[in-house]
Amino acid sequence: EIGPYLVKRLADMLKVNEKLRILHINHNPIRTEGCAVIADALCHNATLQELCLQQTSVKHGSAEPIGRMLLRNTTLRVLQLVHTRLSSEDIAILCKYAERNTTLHQIVVTGSHVDATAARALASLVRTTKTLRKLCLWGNNMKCAGAEIIADGVNQNRSLWELRMMMNHIGDQGAIALADSLTKHPTLYEVDLTGNAINEVGGRSLAVCMEQNVTLETMGLHGNKLISAGGAKDDIVNFLRLNKAGRKLIQQPNVLPTDLCQRLGKNNKDADLMYYLLRQKPDLVGTI
């Protein structure tokens, strides 16, 4: 275990170190006080790119020093707060600071509690960020209400590549709200909704969304209550296959048919997929 003395030694090292890129503090009860010391040191660090605090007894009051660090540190790309049991107020404070950060690419918050206050702060962050690429909110018990609020932020986002919301009990209504926000999202290519008590009703909304979405290539749906065969999940999987095959390419207006056919053919050995794509773009037939 890292006690107060070693936390201070670690902080002193971080202030002057010019080589360390990744720091994971796992299963060490540095507590809120230790977190503040580490965060203050990172205000002076110019090399660290990834910080993970996992089960460190970092609880209420930790967001303020971490947030101040996000305003001053310009190299951190990944911030992971895993099973830290942050309060909703802490999450809201952290998001407020993160909105002003221009270097973070990934934020992970798991094992905390996302109520309406925290969800609104997360939605605001998602809505305003131009640099955040990956957001993981696994196991935060946000339920349907939280998912609906965050979906509103996703609807206006233009930067995210990955959104992970596993084990949040969002149910059908949460899935329906997210489906609406994903329909024409231009950058997301991976969404994980594993273990969210989604039934066929929510699954059908996601399938309808996928009819129009041409960027998503992966959607995690394990641990939900979807029909195993012949239901919404099969339709979703089919559209994901089409997106991976290049469905987005056939909607680009200024690509020459010969170039498009070559680009599609490079990654596609599946005759059914090629048949679908050619039906959508008949002028390709003469180029084969």
Automatic annotation (TrEMBL):
GO molecular function, one term: GTPase activator activity
Keyword Repeat part of the UniProt annotation: yes
Any one biological process term the GO annotation gives: nucleocytoplasmic transport
Pfam families on file: LRR_6
Any one Gene Ontology cellular component term annotated for this protein: cytosol
Database matches in InterPro entries: Leu-rich_rpt (IPR001611), LRR_dom_sf (IPR032675), RanGap (IPR027038)
UniProt keywords, alphabetically: GTPase activation, Leucine-rich repeat, Repeat
Superkingdom in the source lineage: Eukaryota
This protein's record includes keyword DNA repair: no
Protein name: Uncharacterized protein
The species this protein was found in: Grammatophora oceanica
